């Protein structure tokens, strides 16, 4: 029998974080997580008292997994009426208590801005941590609080809170707010975490990088590379996720990240589901306001200066990885895999020739899920031959996405990149019904 797999998205935000959807309640999150195909989802914003209140009301501790579950799972998809019919095919997710702390502090004569993810085994532990952190900064104005606490001291505080509590540096390459970011980060783990460096065992790599980039730097060999959505709305849940085999549990997730060689507690870390890194907002270098986007090589030639305004460029993730990398090619960890995905609404938008957020896409999305189950099942595992019977162009688009045959326009300075599976000409032919019109494969490479 095959060992079961599960997908976890362990960095999200609630309605109490800035610029998030006001609809993000625990039940809404549960519904979206199920629709997306996630088995474990972070709660987000665990340091926010009112969010903890709603979690306490809606969730209960699940003894078998050490995670949290909906107190009343019946009808949990009613939150999203268009998917209510999925209730029997997608189970409600388990919740892992999670928050993100924005630390802004001075170290080594420079201002550092680092985002760190924090995880706790129980609401009591989270409460105790929030009480301590609340003595340092205001936790109630933002679900992702800004505190003047050094990352090292934050880590120490988390470790002192409860056994099994841990820290994962968030989106480690983002220019403005991360461990290795070009604007205010560090050049090594040691510089940031000092004598507690060994207490960090996993790193979140963010949307603009993937394992092929990260594994160019031997300093990261000791770390599991995880991916999460950092979603600010239900629609974005699971756009990146981490894969495990076994049965979900708090200790299983913790141990498989910390001690990968001893796959303990019936759970192992397998790898990640990723964006194509070009689609992330900070892949390349540039200035959005100046309409300047540059590859790292070009930025280096220009001394990191914008050719339009003469100010320093926002150096992106690829630039920083190349700056710190010490290998000509990535060396991957044995047993780890990753897959690059494009969100299903974007693929459907290409096929229909409309925006990914349009009603037309929404209708076809619901229809596809009704037929096949969750979005990540469709993206990852449903055979293209099945998808093709549903919609000929969908089979072809999934085939191309899975084999990496996509065109990529890199994101930069906060602007998302664009990844497409069809050329403009092909898109036109699809709409005129002259491409992929027959159920018979037109492409010899069909799976
Ligand atoms: Zn962040
Ligand atoms: Zn400029």
Provide key terms for this protein:
447 residues; TIM Barrel; two-stranded antiparallel ribbon; 17 strands; single chain; binds zinc ion; alpha/beta; 15 helices; 2 domains; 9-stranded mixed sheet; disordered C terminus
What is the H level of CATH, i.e. the homologous superfamily of the largest domain? Answer: Metal-dependent hydrolases
Number of helices: 15
How big is the Rg?
Answer: 22 Å
Strand residue content: 15-25%
Total domain units: 2
Which kinds of small molecule does this entry bind, naming each only once? zinc ion
Q: What would you call the structural class?
A: alpha/beta
End-to-end C-alpha gap: 24 Å
CATH class of the largest domain: Alpha Beta
What profile does the largest beta sheet have? Answer: 9 strands, mixed
Q: Fraction of residues in helices?
A: 25-40%
Per CATH, the architecture of the largest domain is Alpha-Beta Barrel
Low-confidence residue ranges? 438-447
Shape: globular
CATH topological fold name of the largest domain: TIM Barrel
Mean pLDDT: 93
Number of distinct beta strands: 17
């Amino acid at each position: 029998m095959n060992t079961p797999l599960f997908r976890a998205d362990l960095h999200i935000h609630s309605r109490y974080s800035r610029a998030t959807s006001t609809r993000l309640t625990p039940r809404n999150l549960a519904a979206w997580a199920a629709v997306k195909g996630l088995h474990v989802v972070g709660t987000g914003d665990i340091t926010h008292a009112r969010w903890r209140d709603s979690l306490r009301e809606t969730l209960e501790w699940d003894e078998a997994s050490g995670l949290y579950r909906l107190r009343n799972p019946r009808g949990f998809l009613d939150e999203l009426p268009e998917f209510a019919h999925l209730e029997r095919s997608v189970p409600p997710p388990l919740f892992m208590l999670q928050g993100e702390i924005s630390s802004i502090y001075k170290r080594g004569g420079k201002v550092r801005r680092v985002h760190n993810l924090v995880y706790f085994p129980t609401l009591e532990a989270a409460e105790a941590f929030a009480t301590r952190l609340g003595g340092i900064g205001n936790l109630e104005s933002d679900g992702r609080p800004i505190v003047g606490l050094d990352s090292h001291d934050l880590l120490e505080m988390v470790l002192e809170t409860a056994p099994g509590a841990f820290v994962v540096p968030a989106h480690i390459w983002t220019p403005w707010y991360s461990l290795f970011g070009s604007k205010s980060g560090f050049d090594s783990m040691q510089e940031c975490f000092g004598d507690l460096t060994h207490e960090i065992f996993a790193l979140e790599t963010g949307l603009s990088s993937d394992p092929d980039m990260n594994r160019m730097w031997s300093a990261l060999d000791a770390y599991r590379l995880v991916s999460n959505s950092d979603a600010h709305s239900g629609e974005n849940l699971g756009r990146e996720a981490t894969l495990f085999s076994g049965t979900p549990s708090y200790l299983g997730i913790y141990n498989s990240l910390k001690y990968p060689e001893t796959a303990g507690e019936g759970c192992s870390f397998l790898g990640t589901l990723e964006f194509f890194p070009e689609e992330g907002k900070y892949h390349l270098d540039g200035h959005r306001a100046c309409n300047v986007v540059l590859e790292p090589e070009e930025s280096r030639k220009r001394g990191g200066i914008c050719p339009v305004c003469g100010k320093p460029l926002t150096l992106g993730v690829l630039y920083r990885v190349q700056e710190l990398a010490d290998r000509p090619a990535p060396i991957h960890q044995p047993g780890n895999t990753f897959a690059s995905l494009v969100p299903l609404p974007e693929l459907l938008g290409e096929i229909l020739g409309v925006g990914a957020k349009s009603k037309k896409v929404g209708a076809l999305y619901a229809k596809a899920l009704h037929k096949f189950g969750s979005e990540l099942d469709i993206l990852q595992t449903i055979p293209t031959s099945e998808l093709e019977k549903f919609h000929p162009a969908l089979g072809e688009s999934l085939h191309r996405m899975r084999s990496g045959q996509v065109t990529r326009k890199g994101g930069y300075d906060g602007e998302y990149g664009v990844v497409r599976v069809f050329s403009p000409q092909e898109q036109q032919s699809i709409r005129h019904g002259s491409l992929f019109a027959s159920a018979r494969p037109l492409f010899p490479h069909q799976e």
